[in-house]
Amino acid sequence: MSVISEDNVRGGSVFKDISADDEDWQPTEIESLCMNCYQNGTTRLLLTRIPFFKEIIVSSFSCGNCGWSNTEIQSAGRIQEQGVCYTLKVKTKQDLNREVVKADSATTRIPELDFEIPPFTQKGSLSTIEGLLDRAVAGLEQDQAVRRATHPEVAEKIDEFIQKLRKLKEVENEFTLVIEDPSGNSFVENPLAPQKDEALTVSSFKRTAQQDMQLGIRADDDLDEEEPPSNDLEAMRNEVLVFNTNCPECNAPASTNMKLVQIPHFKEVIIMATNCDSCGHRTNEVKSGGATEELGTKITLHITDPSDMTRDVLKSETCSVLIPELEFELGMAALGGKFTTLEGLLKDIKDLIVSKNPFICGDSSTTDRVQKLNEFGEKLEKIITGELDVHIILDDPAGNSYLQNVYAPEPDPEMTVEKYTRSVEQNDELGLNDMKTEGYQEED
């Protein structure tokens, strides 16, 4: 049996980047009970790191007596600040090959069949769309022999439904796959990266109290606690609030600072910064301090000089970033809210698309995909150094994003700010269509 050495643990190398070239990193083998024949089999555990999915534990069981095997993954990283929902329109058989990281807390739905796999009913998996369908079929077939003997009518209906699931793999008709994960640790591949995938929609959402309890990050009695008062804004403007948290990289205890800041020629925002003394990791996030604006905002900047990289940028969590010359669009859910410079924003985009892409390393990588993303990263570097003439567009339907005008209060000749009326779809994404604003007047 192989074991993980103490030197690796102390050196912080317990989790290593996933790669097919690392022959020295061997899994830990544990003798365990086979749940099929109840003889002893072998479980192999491998602690590895996939960017986007953070650290994971890959476990694989095999039984030499009956041949039964099973593979699953578990997240070893932290729960993200927001949940994530992926909606994919499956139109061709090629879409079935998209790789998927599905956490055990994720709910999988196919609306066309009124089919749903509830959370915590399956272990986490690293698979493909076709693999998810095969796993669903295998789960339904598991007890069919017993059902045919005891409840033949139920078994017949399940057989009919299994055939519908299998027929989905022929993709004769378009269908929708929805993966909703409150932990934020699931992922669906975009094969067109860094370009936008029209068939894939990614959105973030705030967890409910019940979802927090399911994830084990809220106790039942916390629901009865009163929310802290939020009307003392004047005191918050004059001080930095500090609260304890965990580092998103090493999970060590850290502190997050929060402060209300007034941005000149814009509005008030809330900036949160986390610093980790253990590993040195730093991160910041920005939230709008005000309400959703009446109109959306579209800011277009023509980058003509390297000095443009020093412009301050406030990108809210509802803002999309577009670079038309590169045919690139970053959806509103990506990167979250940020207060940085234009150079910092472009570097964060490069890290997200190129450096931290889980499907360009190890067995998941292909030569064409790696070359394509590397070329995109080189173009971003040329934009930063002023070698590439492009436009950058910040499109925020909530109207809470900002790009510094270096000529303020005079107009900026290279920047245009357009106000527009949101579409019904944009209001739906912002949750405004379901918002009730009447009947809340205080009674005398």
CA-based shape: globular
Number of helices: 9
As a percent range, the share of helical residues equals 10-25%
Cα radius of gyration in angstroms: 25 Å
The number of E-state strands comes to 25
Structural class by sheet pairing and helices: alpha+beta
Give the overall average pLDDT: 80
Assess the beta-strand content as a share of residues. 25-35%
Q: How does this model look, in words?
A:
This protein is of the alpha+beta class and 444 residues long. Helix content is 20%, strand content 32%. It is built from 9 helices and 25 strands. It has helices at 6-10, 129-141, 144-150, 152-168, 209-214, 233-237, 342-355, 367-384, 424-429; strands at 16-17, 28-33, 40-50, 54-62, 69-75, 83-90, 99-102, 107-110, 115-117, 125-128, 175-181, 187-188, 200-205, 241-246, 253-262, 268-275, 282-288, 296-303, 312-315, 320-323, 328-330, 338-341, 390-396, 402-403, 415-420. Strands 1, 2, 3, 4 and 5 form a 5-stranded mixed beta sheet that branches. Helix 2 runs antiparallel to helix 4, helix 3 packs antiparallel against helix 4 (152-168) and helix 7 runs antiparallel to helix 8. The longest helix has 18 residues, at 367-384. The chain is globular. The termini are far apart. 24% of the residues are buried. The model is unreliable at 1-15 and 226-231 (pLDDT under 50).
Question: Quick gist of this model?
Answer:
The chain is of the alpha+beta class and 444 residues long. The protein is built from nine helices and 25 strands.
